[in-house]
Amino acid sequence: MKLLKYIALASIGFSATSCKSFLKENPESIISEEQFYKTQTDAINAVNAVYFLLNSGGSTVQTPYNTLFNTGMNFAGDDEDPGPGATNPDVRSLAVLAHSSANLRIYELWQQHYAAIKKANVALEKIPTIEFDATLKNRLLGETKFLRALYYFNLVRLYGDVPLITSYQKYVNANDYAVAKSPSTAVYQQIEKDLTEAASVLPNTYASPDAGRATSGAAKALLAKVYLTKASFPLNLTQHYADVVKKAEEVLSPADGGTGAYGYDLFANYADVFLPATKNGKEHIFSAQFKSNSVGQGNNQNPRSILTAIPGLTGSYADMVRFYTVGADKFFSVYKLYQPTDKRKRVTFVTNFTSPSNGRKYALPIVNTAVPNDSTPFFNKTWDPNSLSPTNESAANVAIIRYAELLLIHAEAENELNGPTTKAYKSLNKVRNRAGLPNLAEGLSKDQFREALYLDRRLELVFEYQRWFDLIRQKDATGKSSFVANLHKVGKTNAADKHRLYPIPQSEIDNNPLLEQNTLWK
Q: Which residues form the signal peptide (predicted)?
């Protein structure tokens, strides 16, 4: 695991910190900006500060990959709901698509991403002025560009047109910070530029203790995902499908039809994707890093997924599967979409917990006339067998992009470009075979292959902060967006086109006279 140092940069001054383990912040002094950015260590700290907002946490803080994407995004989709332990009214309103521009989670997503972008812009301006090893300097600048691209990629998918800020803002008056929205196409151009430049200078791998930092392969894989998003709804720039295939094959291994020399592959055991013992392994292209049993450094999603009142475990049951009606079954969920032989099912979910205190099993049965002995499934991908009460914070990383997703990205784009070719089947079947499923039936049409791939993508990546983004961009056999129809299927009958984008936070509009609300939210 990477042992990083972090600093928190403000517009005028900042707190310099150091740590002996990933994510820990210990303020040592308050110094002026002019006193900083003098040494190689200062440059490293500046970049580490950009990483910090991926995953920092604690009892009162949520950041994008440490529960905020769940409470502020996943609950709006079709796989999850807030559980009994999630009592925040902003979270619960979002889950039923009754949110407004005043929603706190929608504001936090905006604020957290722009705070990280500001840190990136600071690093990109200041690091070139510091004298130290040129190779390391270029690497640090590449890491920063990769992270800025990732943050903007999230913003443009969530909000559409957003302010594009690529320089360090250091102003005196509040009005100086007023920036109008840029078209999403311009934001995507900047994302592509950052990722292309990052890929050209980043290393293929890192030696310990730097595992977990952005690599050249990560930049290319994320760029393939960016191209796929541009080719999909709402932009529908289908010429980018060719770019997806080309870029993905630069990362895929020769055994999988690519030219990549990064050593990526699937774990034989699906569980190894998520267990802390195998983090940063061959399937992990880029992940948010966590450490267990240390307040503020652990994955706080873990206790939220555990049933309450289990001796020896701290669980709030704050997230749960979304139940909806299919036929006579009023407790259908994504859990029941898996085939019985699908190995992903028993890794992704558990239906009971064993108390470490008394050895008893605890479950939440369902009285379901359609399914005898039915029981509530709980999400399990953040489980850490070594996490302890009273926090049960997990050391399970959050995969931002992994090799299985890259294979699915490649298969989807190849199908859209050329129909279900041998290449498309090969990439999809590799993911299916690892799950214990047979090869997909031959001779499918493009539409049939697409639907099969969408299902496998959903089952492969459930609870990994991917589903909402997929709902936004995917289409049906007629070529129309399937966003509204998919949400209607699970009982969210108020879902409408406007929900595809979040409203711009009202507090941001109030503070920025140049910022306009998204059209369907006016």
A: none
Question: Looking at the DSSP assignment, which residues form a beta bridge with residue 332?
Answer: 324
pTM over 0.85: yes
Give, as one character, the DSSP assignment of residue 386: T
- Please state, for a pLDDT cut of 90, what percent of the chain lies above it: 86
Asked if residue 97 lies in contact with residue 499, where contact means CB atoms within 8 angstroms, the answer is: yes
Closest CA to 511 of 264, 174, 208, 172: 174
For the segment 4-16, the average pLDDT, to the nearest whole number, is: 32
Among candidate residues 409, 373, 87, the one with its CA nearest the CA of residue 231: 409
pLDDT in tens, 23-32: 444 455 566 7
Evaluate whether 358 touches 309 at the Cβ level (below 8 Å): no
What is the Cα–Cα distance from 274 to 284, expressed in whole angstroms? 10
- Number of CB atoms found within 10 A of residue 446's CB: 15
pLDDT tens readout for residues 371-421: 999 999 999 999 999 888 888 889 999 999 999 999 999 999 999 999 999
Spell out the residues 6+ positions from residue 480 whose beta carbon is closer than 8 angstroms to its own: none
Q: Which two tokens stand for residue 239?
A: 């010429």
Sign of CA dihedral 98, 64, 169, 164: negative
Rg (the chain; Cα; Å): 22
| Residue 330 tokens, joined | 């009023």
Tokens 């992990």 correspond to 284
pLDDT, position 172: 65
pLDDT in tens, 186-197: 999 999 999 999
Find all residues with CB under 8 Å of 293, minimum gap 6, and list them: 386, 387, 388, 391, 393, 395
Residue among 466, 424, 511 nearest 78 (CA):
466
pLDDT for position 391: 81
Residue 207's φ and ψ, nearest 5 degrees, are: -85, 160
Q: Nearest Cα to 182, choosing from 501, 510, 515, 521?
A: 515
User: CA nearest 151: which of 139, 140, 163?
Assistant: 163
